[in-house]
Design brief:
The chain is built from five helices and four strands, in the order E-H-E-H-E-H-E-H-H. It has 183 residues and is of the alpha/beta class. This is 6,7-dimethyl-8-ribityllumazine synthase.
Length: 183
């Protein structure tokens, strides 16, 4: 039973330069989202990170919001928060799989993302996982994003500085048949 197991948690990294963290939350189940946010903000504060919070309609919109912020803003890392509770249809599978896949693809492109989207069978499981004083999956997602950022900074900042933004030389835009886009 996962609720009674203990797991090793890495100590939070420390940073020499400021950290700007964006929390993107789908507050469909607001009480659960509020607990996740509290946990994520507490971990961010412990690491000395500046936090901005934005809300989106649902879990499927979280990767798109993070991708937009990654392209257009100067955030260093991102925390995805929300909750998907299994229902009577296969929509649950679509939302879980596609939101996770979107976040994974962002990570593979150099975006430091902590995935705190809960995918559970029922409300009780969500409450246990969301509680900031309990399993604190929101805090865990913030810690994951900060750990990825620490590795990114350790190994050298990607092109574009604090907020990874691919240069025009490396980016082929949709519909651009003649070659890479220019900035």
């Amino acid at each position: 039973m996962a609720g009674t197991e203990t797991h090793y948690e890495l100590p939070l990294p420390s940073f020499d330069a400021p950290v700007k963290l964006l929390i993107v939350v789908a507050p469909y189940y607001k009480d659960i989202a509020d607990q996740q946010i509290a946990g994520a903000k507490a971990v961010a504060a412990e690491a000395g990170a500046e936090v901005e919070l934005v809300e989106v309609p649902g879990a499927l919109e979280i990767p798109s919001a993070i991708a937009t912020a990654h392209r257009l803003s100067n955030f260093d890392a991102y925390v995805a928060l929300g909750c998907v509770i299994r229902g009577e249809t296969t929509h649950y599978d679509t939302v879980c799989n596609d939101s996770s896949r979107g976040l994974t693809l962002l990570g593979l492109q150099g975006c430091c993302v902590g995935n705190g989207i809960l995918t559970v069978e029922n409300r009780e499981q969500a409450v246990v996982r969301a509680e900031a004083a309990g399993q604190n999956k929101g805090g865990g997602a913030a810690a994951a994003a900060l750990h990825l950022l620490a590795l990114q900074r350790r190994w050298g900042k990607p092109k574009g500085g604090f907020g990874f933004k691919p240069s025009g030389e490396d980016t082929l835009m949709a519909g651009d048949a003649e070659g890479p886009a220019t900035a």
